[in-house]
Amino acid sequence: MADTSLGWYVATDVGHGPISSQSVKVSDVTLSSSAASDATPPLASGTYKLEPDYSARGFLRAGYRLTPNLRAELEIGARPGKLIDGLGGSNATNLGAFDKTSLMANAIVDFWPEMGLHPFVGVGAGMVNAKADYREAMTLNGHSVVYSIDDSRMVPAGQFLAGASWDVTEHLHFDMTYRYLRTGSTNYDIGVTDTYGPSANPVIDTYTAHGSGPIEDHSLTIGLRWTFGAPLAPAAAPQTVALEATPASSVPPVPPARSAPPAMTQSPMAGTAAPTPVATTQVADAGPAESGDTADVAGSSDAADGSLAASTANRHHPRPGVAQAGSRTAPASPAAPTTQIATNDPTQSPTPIAAAAAPVAAAPASSDNATKADADPVPQPPLMTIPAPRHFTTYFPLGGSSLDSVAKSTVVDAAQYAKSAPAPRVTVDGYADTSGSAAYNLSLSHRRASSVSNELQSNGIPTDAITIAWHGETHLAIKTRDGVKMARNRRVTIGVSFAGAHKAYHRHWRRHHRHKKAG
Asked: Which sign, positive or negative, has the C-alpha torsion 83, 87, 93, 96?
């Protein structure tokens, strides 16, 4: 299991605070009332410490995982406490309440979230409401002195977090967290009374003072976190290749076409050069005249990579001539109609599908036969177009495996092209850049390939026509060192070819041949 599901989560933590204190710098000690003329303040200016005992801690959190390694959350925390040390230094068991309530915004970085147990660190900023209800009484040299603070202040604060998380299930995680909190300077109004003299007629001196200082708090907690994002399941593809398989698509070879008997021709006249045949890489096809067939190779993201546009082949199919009655020789055979297949490799010649037989010249026939041939010509078989192989590429954000609108448009284009002819073969290959561990990148490339496969299926491509593979941080489009974030390496390639093309051509040729025999 891995703690990598993107989306919302909620959490709760409980624990205790082993160390918490506030340094209070006392100043402006002022005598406000006295019955004596030689009153001596029992509280001198200086730095003191308010220190609570060990007490419980509780936190509620709600957040969102932005990437597999980064979370953002809001945290409400309660840090109650009872003071055991104050301005008088009496070290009593209960000198009053010292409570802190915090509202913090945290950013947390998870390391190796694909592991079942992984560490994390974070920082936070927010506000703390510090409330002190403090009263300390002590007797010193016949003086009964009472120190008191009854004040509440809202102050800014920051915190540091560190800990580890263990994946209980795909959605439930167990967090162990340390927090260090420090506030800005918190100001208090301090009251001091000094009672001395005979009990029947005591002297009471009253003082006021000002105290200020930061609060520091350490806490250790354990908690549970529930994530709502559903883990990305791999596509239910019936075919899965080895992880290091290299995507490839090619047109299956076609057996050579049958050659026709040589036509009767006249020898060229003396002094006249015979026409030179022109070599082509075109395939013969028969049927009604067509033009404007165009195959272009481009994906919405491949264009940015400089993918090659396939060549355009316009085809015109002239009708074979019919020999006239009583002619001594058959007319020369017209050029066979051709279809050129584009490839994605600029160094590779266009791939011929088959070579059509040259039409056989008609034998000398009677006038009646020629007239019948003109009136009822043998129909030609329909033209069969075999689409060229194409490649499409989609790109993903850092740590992401969901398709954005641009990526979905590219997948739709690939699905439409795959449905342009029967028996398509679609290969889907997922990749990642080198940021993150190799194991995480392998899992991430699998999720990316699965997302594309699912989108292809939702656009009408059958599962048995799709083969997926995932390669992690291998086969980089842009070579980088380890740990480099590279957008063009975070990709999925889609290869579309047509495995049934040669079978369709065989059926096409056999039907044409049988028809010729029957005629």
From this structure: negative
More confident residue, 195 or 12: 12
At which residue do the structure tokens 């065989």 appear? Answer: 506
pLDDT of 373 higher than 90 = no
Tell me, what's the pLDDT at 41? 77
Residue-level pLDDT at 138: 83
Tell me the angle at which helices 438-458 and 405-418 cross, rounded to the nearest 10 degrees: 60
Q: Enumerate the β-bridge partners of residue 199.
A: none
Range 78-91 average pLDDT? 82
Residue 513: other Cβ atoms inside 10 A: 13
Contact 235, 468 (CB under 8 A): yes
Taking the C-alpha atoms of residue 67 and residue 86, their distance in angstroms, rounded to an integer, is 46
Closest CA to 41 of 30, 28, 25: 30
- Tell me the pLDDT of the chain averaged across its residues: 75
237-252+282-287+295-307+335-340+380-519: CATH topology is 60s Ribosomal Protein L30; Chain: A; (3.30.1330)
* Cα dihedral across residues 446, 452, 454, 457: positive or negative: negative
Domain parsing of the chain, residue ranges: 7-227, 237-252+282-287+295-307+335-340+380-519
Ranking 100-109, 298-307, 492-501 by mean pLDDT, the lowest is 298-307
Each residue's pLDDT tens digit, 145-165: 888 998 899 999 999 999 999
Q: Write down the residue that tokens 């060192």 correspond to.
A: 481
CATH topology assigned to domain 7-227? Porin (2.40.160)
Burial (CB < 10 A; 0-12, 13-18, 19+), residue 299, is: buried
Cβ neighbours around 326 below 10 Å, total = 10
